Structures are given as structure tokens and as C-alpha cells.
Amino acid sequence: MVSAAEQLASNLNLSAFAKAEDLKKRLWFTLGALVIFRLGTFIPLPGINPLAFAEAFKSQAGGILGMFNMFSGGALERLAIFALNIMPYISASIIMQLMSSINPKLEALKKEGEAGRKQINQYTRYLTVILAALQAYGIAVGLEGSRNAAGSVVIEPGMFFRATTVITLVGGTMFLMWLGEQITQRGVGNGTSLIIFAGIVAGLPGALVQLFELSRTGSISPLVLIFFLVLALAVIAAIVFFERAQRRLLVQYPKRQVGNKMFQGDASHLPLKLNSSGVIPPIFASSLLLLPITVAQFSAGQGPEWLNTAVAALGTGQPLHMAVYAALILFFAFFYTAVVINPKDTADNLRKYGGFLPGIRPGEKTAEYIDYVLTRITLVGAIYLAAVCVLPEILTSYAGIPLYFGGTSLLIAVSVTMDTVAQVQSHLIAQQYEGLIKKAKLRGTKR
User: Can you give the CATH number for the domain in which 405 is found?
Assistant: First the structure.
């Protein structure tokens, strides 16, 4: 039975949601933007023979292109205008963040506040156009050389086809980048993550039907099906547990005197998340794995021998793919945590407001202690991310289970859902505070 307190809290949340007009607008805007994204995944590129392309993709879908297709919501399988998805923008963001840590000018820009971040975002957009153009041109050339029993994939090869393909795919990526920024500013949640989340969730019903069909036809045994469903639930529970896990450092504030009154020192906590980087490491790692071999997969083995060998070795389920994927996740977990949390700045802020960690000298010693704790919990978080993303991928590749039930897709789906729910709750709390402030002002005016 639901307790009276829980029922009261639920009623208060519902009443607050009913009055939160701004939140409703944000939710409707987010939903509308995601619908537009889904519609774009069904608009095909011009000049393509759909039957021949479907045959060519079917022969490559079991590899890393299957993961790319999952992130794009099926746009790659249909060779739609959003086939590149938002991956070039993610790759550009990786490069710019790495350069910001190496290049002094970019590092100085990052410290300039809002103006500096806007300039870095502008550089990221320019780099996105360059990367998307290179990928789109490579795809166009690869498609022209692709031929199978259904005929040539490209109806009329030539420079006109290459130009239209580059313009269309680059335009689709830039539109998705803009759409993601609009969702972040005017909607609810992180726009880039929500676009990838929408692509994954859109394919889950079909993947579930495919999973039960595999069991019905005898491709996998019922015991394997039950085991995998239980494993998926266990992975989801583990994701929720680890994403909520925190290490709280006790922070104390000294006694202070205001006028003739002496106020007792307060105590609070500095929360350090076990996984401060969120879903960024798997997305970054997938993006880097997809970048060099997306085009090579469409060359139908006509490229250099070393490239074909690399593509085969980096295919989904291959030992090299798993090793590189896990290594990239570990690297980006530490790298992105270092970008998000700066122990020196945190220590300086604590000292500025009079706070200190018990037994730790303020300033440099506090920064060293925070860095010590952060490094160790990040190691645990990075191992958790690598295990969640890699271990289920091994089972899906060897059991022939759809990629949508892999660890990467489940991690993104669960984490983005939790982040979006948290943002909705914060909007509701802000709405309640605004209502209380307005009531207080009205009472003060009446008096």
C-alpha cells in the first residue's frame, strides 16, 4: 500500500506539474523536436537504388555499421538525410576538448567564461562541417563503387551525385546539431544525448520482436532468451545504482559573528559522483571507432589490404574491437572527469567561502586530497562503464542478439532518462519557489 506521505507528495507533484506552464512548453518543444528527427530518418538520399543498397547494407549490418545504424535510429539502414547523425559533431567536440587541454590559446578561451565558450563552440561547428564533409564524400565515393546482384547502388555516378550527397548529409548533420542546441536551451535535457537516445529507443520495439522471433525459430534457445532478459534487467539495475552512487566529503564552516550574535558553524557535504562523466565516454569511444571505418565498410573490399584487415579486426564482437572500445572508455572517463571537475578550483572556492575539509589544510592540500579521492572513485566508475558496455556486447555478438540490448544502448537509454527526469524535477522545484516568492511579495504589498 502507498503511505499517506507518499500519496501527498505525489499529489503535490501532480498539482505542481499542472501549474508549470513553462515546463509543459519545454516538454512539448522537446517532443516536437524529436518527432522532426524521426521524420528525417525516413527521407532518403537522392540518386540511390534502394534495393541494391539494402542488399549491400545487409551484408555489413552485423559489423560496426550496425552500431552506427542503432545510434542514427535506422537512418543509415535507409540511407536517409540524417545518415551521419550527430556523430561528426561529437567527434569535433572530442578534438576541441583535447586541443583545449594542449593549446594555450584555447585553454585561455575556455577560462574567459561565456564569451570564451561561445568562441570554442563556433570552432567546434566549423570542425563539424569539415568532418561531416569528409565523411559524406567518402560515403559517396564508396557507394559509387558498390555493386551486387540487385545492381549498382548509385543510379547515375559522377560529380553531381557526390556534390548532392555531400550537401545533403552535411546539411542533415548541421540541422541535427542545431536541433540539439535548441532542445538544450528551450527544451528539457541534453539535446545531443536525447537525439541519440531517441534513435536507440525507436528501434527497441523492433529489436524485441526480433529477439522473440529468434527464440521461436530456434536460433536461440528459450533458456538463452530468459537468461539474456534477466541479464538486461540486472544491467539496468546496476546502471541506476552506479549512476546514483556518490562519495560525500564532509565540509565544515567556522563559527561567525554577525553584530552581537555568534552563529554556530555549519556542516555540509561535497558530493563527488562515482561516474562524473555520465554517458560521454561510451558515446565518444563509439564515435572514434565509427569514424575511420564507416566509409571503408561501403567499399566492398576494394580498398587497400591493410584497411580491409583493420575493418575486419575492428568489427563488432572481435577481440580487438572490445579491447580498443574498453581502452577508449577508460581514457575518456578520466579525461572528461578532469574537464568537468577541477580540484584546484573546487579547493579555492571552499577557501573563499570559509569552508574546509576536517583534518586537511585549506588550499593546495585540499586540492590534492580532492584529486586523490576523485582519481580513485573515477577508476571504479571507469571500470563500471567498460564492464557495462563491453560484457553484454560480447554476449550479443556470440548469441546473435540485436545490438539494441547491448550494454552501450542500455546505458545511454537509462542514463539519459534519469538525467531528463532530474531536470523535470528541478523545473518543478523552481516553479514552486517562484510561486512562494510571488505569494510573499503579495502579502508584503497588502501589509
Answer: 1.10.3370.10
Please give the full DSSP string across 290-352, using - where no structure is assigned.
HTTTHHHHTTTT-S-HHHHHHHHHTSTT-HHHHHHHHHHHHHHHHHHHHHH--HHHHHHHHHH
- Interatomic CA distance for residues 166 and 378, integer angstroms: 40
pLDDT tens string 137-156: 878 887 887 777 767 888 88
Cell of 352: 573563499
Residues 347-365: tens digit of each pLDDT? 888 888 778 888 888 888 8
Q: Is residue 5 part of a domain?
A: no
Q: Which helix (H) or strand (E) holds 273?
A: strand 267-273
Overall number of domains in the chain:
1
Q: What angle do CA 128, 314, 147 make, to 5 degrees?
A: 80
CA atoms of 244 and 415, how far apart (whole Å): 10
Q: How far is CA 14 from the centre of its chain?
A: 29
Residues 6 or more apart in contact with residue 7 via CB below 8 angstroms: none
Query: What does the DSSP 8-state code read for residue 48?
Result: B
Residue 103 lies in a domain: yes
User: Looking at 114-123, 285-294, 352-361, which range is the least confident one?
Assistant: 285-294
Neighbouring-strand partners of residue 248: 271
